[in-house]
Amino acid sequence: MDLPAADVVLYSVLGVILLENIFDIYITYRQIQVYKTALKVPKELKDCMSDETFQKARLYGLDRANFGVFCAIIKDVILMCIELYTGFIAVQWDWAIDLAKLVHLNSENEIIVSCLFAFVTSVIGTFKDLPFKIYSTFVLEEKHGFNKQTGGFFAWDQVKGFLVTQVLMVPIISATVWIVKNGGDQFFIWLWLFTGITSLVLLTIYPIFIAPLFDKYTPLEDGPLRKSIEDLAATLKFPLTKLYVVEGSKRSSHSNAYFYGLWNSKRIVLFDTLLLNKGKPDDSELKEEDKGKGCTNEEVLAVLGHELGHWKCGHVTKNIIIAQVHLLLLFVVFGYCFSYGPFYEAVGFKSGTRPIVVGLLVVFTYVMAPYNAIVNFAMTTLSRYYEYQADEFAHGLGFSKQLGQSLIKLNLDNLGFPVYDWLYSACNHSHPTLLQRLDRLKQLDVEGKETKKEK
Questions:
Q1: At the N or C end, where does the chain have fewer CB atoms within 10 A?
Q2: Is residue 400 a contact partner of residue 444, using CB atoms and an 8 Å limit?
Q3: Predicted TM-score (pTM) of this structure
């Protein structure tokens, strides 16, 4: 006897979820075996990485990998499959309708119910993720010395994140539902244009108005480092308008640096944990374990040379274009698929009930899952290529030695493990491994010397 179309869709989706997670768990298991068997510092790092640091990094990586497998099994396999099989998405839609009635809103208006549905799913998702976040922050990260958050800071962070998400979601969901309902047969083009404009707006306003809600940003004080950065930006004609230090040490001791801004208004942000002794001239205020951590001014400049390489090579612009093409394809598929009844019946809706936001969820998350997996792998591969290009750019600026030193320091400070299974790394790492980047810098040094000899 043939299965109903809705059952075929449901079992296909469940099958894809299981296959994806089995593969992810398999490659993580391969990396777990590396953590268990790679017991000696690689010869390339023997002069700069102690056995004690290597073992700490190994155990940190092992704990994170085991926790990742646990999360995948509980959240992405068991809970997700139960929710789909029992039609929990439809239950949440019914709760949104009930909530609309409770607060005396029009429960027949799909835009209103869609916004409330997003609110309901956010509340449930927040409480579902909370135990895992708490364990990750206050047990795993705390155990390995990275967590700097208090319970109150963490709780307020979650509340702010939830509120900001709701404020952003309401206009976006409202506009999305309105466009689909009123955009005609080619609504997906209007939806794509709206999404593209919205993403550019968010890219612009997030670092200016939203990020400061979560972390403290202060201008980098005048001094040799600021002047060096401004001189480098001027040499490269990088339109630097602001230079900030973000107090990331209140959240974690991990380090980073990035730039943001569209067109001719760029801003550079340095994590205080990136700077030597958090940029403080007097280390007496620091805890003993924080003293001596971070990069020298020359090494920070090398890191920024790498980041500016991304700008000079147009990586941000290229990624935006790729993302927009990807979105257009997703919306085209959605335009042809969203009215297919079995998609909705598969997740628990009665025949004839087809909420637009649920259609987006089903098509983007489940129907397009195999395609998304391929695109994610391709983008991960492309990202590693971009990283090599940015390293080469920094090398061309004369920062080869300093960049190598900064990569090693950041790896040591962040307890990055230098040894990886090739398949795990290929699927998970947007950056080449430390050893791969150091090896490439050495190759560039050799090629540079050979080129000079030929001249």
A1: N
A2: yes
A3: 0.89
pLDDT band at 269, cuts 50/70/90? confident
Tokens of 69: 């497998």
Using CA atoms, how far apart are residues 435 and 38, in angstroms rounded to an integer? 14
Q: Convert 321-354 to b/e letters by CB count within 10 Å (16 or more is b).
A: eeebeebbebbebbbeebebbebbbbbbbeeeeb
Q: What is the pLDDT of residues 215-251, one digit of tens each?
A: 888 888 888 889 999 999 999 998 888 888 888 777 7
Beta pairing partners, 219: 244
Euclidean distance between CA atoms 73 and 95, whole angstroms: 27
Task: Measure the CA dihedral 386/389/393/395, to 10°.
Answer: 120
CA–CA dist 399, 407 (Å, integer): 12
**CA–CA gap between residue 24 and residue 273 (Å, rounded):** 31
Are β-strands 266-271 and 257-260 bridged in parallel, bridged antiparallel, or unpaired?
A: antiparallel
Contact 65, 420 (CB under 8 A): no
- CA proximity to 398, closest of 441, 436, 455, 432: 441
**Spatial separation of the C-alpha atoms in residues 208 and 63, rounded to whole Å:** 35
Instruction: Give the span between the Cα atoms of 416 and 89, in whole angstroms.
Output: 39
73: CB partners within 8 A, 6+ apart = 21, 25
Tokens 């403290």 sit on residue = 216
Percent of the chain with pLDDT over 90: 70
Question: Cβ-count burial of 251 within 10 angstroms (0-12 exposed, 13-18 middle, 19+ buried)?
Answer: buried
**Bridge partner list, 218:** 245
Sequential DSSP letters for 196-251: HHHHHHHHHHIIIIIGGGTS-EEEPPSSHHHHHHHHHHHHHT--EEEEEEE-GGGT
Q: So which residues are the catalytic ones?
A: 307
* Pair 64, 140: CB distance under 8 Å: yes
For 257, the 3-state DSSP assignment is strand
